[in-house]
Design brief:
DNA-binding, homodimer, Arc Repressor Mutant, subunit A, about 45% helix, Dna Ligase, domain 1
DNA sequence: TTGAATGCAAAGGATTTGCAGAGGC
DNA sequence: GCCTCTGCAAATCCTTTGCATTCAA
């Protein structure tokens, strides 16, 4: 395990995007929803790489207002919820914001979170699944999912620690 | 392990409140801050039991506005941050809100979260600490803390599942 | 007395919603 | 053409902040 690329399923972004697109089409079909330009724009943008992102970061990556391909803020939020619903994205809370990552076709994993530079590092450890299984059995709890986040300081920030300020603040 | 009472340190609430009070006094002293009526009210209320809560739930437990012992909303928020700072409370995010639980004198643990009734169940498993240690070593990551939440449906809600609606919605 | 803390009102940031017009199917 | 979707503006929710007053030390 487990940088972002180590952990991926082995498909190219283009292949991934195609199969994700099919799944989303099915989702739309089954609900009588429409395959709009905006939904396609967002899906393409999101599945062109494997990064974690929040709504604002996604908006920043979109063409500016007025340009072709732009999508409004409310539609971005609405569509992100649809993607989660369709099983394409997973959502979790970090520092009061919603953060999204690929779900469909992407192996289950957890995260290290650097509180200095806000970087998320993925890791995978099967023992977590074993533990959650045992705990669930003990409490007669029906598991849907889990989320483990280890917070601290990443390797890079440890090296750069001449000052205590965040790199972000120094820009 | 581990209902709330199983997991606790074995002190009575009164004993706990006393030692927590001392720690908070030290915190205030060391920063030239004042031991106000409002801070005492909140500390007493919070450490009279071991429940998880958010700011609104705490406000609901306080005497109503106008009555003795009431504390305003901004002061509640300010004081909760102080308690976290002082190491008395731990804070985490759930469904977009900040949730608080006892930290000082309370063993490290993780949670099962019921998505139907919003109940939090505590559990403790030392293997998680071992895993986080190993993962941290692999990524040369300096751990400060971790948080694991297993989401699903609790025993009670599984039994009551004649309807799919939340108990909350039925009231 | 004096600076810190409180309460009020208002601001702030993230996200959602009502509605009229645009656009899939 | 019908009905969904979009974009706009405004609302909502949670939390924080500015400021005059109150109060602990």
């Amino acid at each position: 395990m487990a940088t972002d690329s180590d952990i991926s399923g082995g498909l190219t972004p283009a292949e991934m995007s195609r199969s994700v697109g099919q799944r989303f089409d099915d989702y739309l079909q089954s609900r009588g929803m429409r395959n709009t330009q905006q939904r396609r724009n967002l899906l393409d943008l999101i599945f062109s790489d494997h990064e974690h992102f929040d709504a604002d970061q996604l908006l920043d990556k979109l063409p500016a207002k007025g340009l072709a391909g732009h999508v409004s803020r409310p539609t971005v939020y609405r569509t992100l919820n649809e993607f989660v619903d369709a099983g394409l994205l997973r959502k979790f809370e970090l520092e009061g914001r919603s953060v999204y990552e690929h779900d469909y076709g992407y192996p289950e994993h957890d995260h290290l979170y650097c509180s200095q530079c806000s970087k998320l590092i993925e890791f995978q450890d099967d023992r977590l699944i074993e533990i959650r299984k045992q705990v669930a059995a003990k409490y007669n709890f029906q598991v849907r999912s889990h989320r483990m986040i280890i917070t601290g300081v990443c390797e890079e920030c440890r090296k750069n620690r001449r000052r205590k300020r965040r790199p972000v603040d120094l820009i």
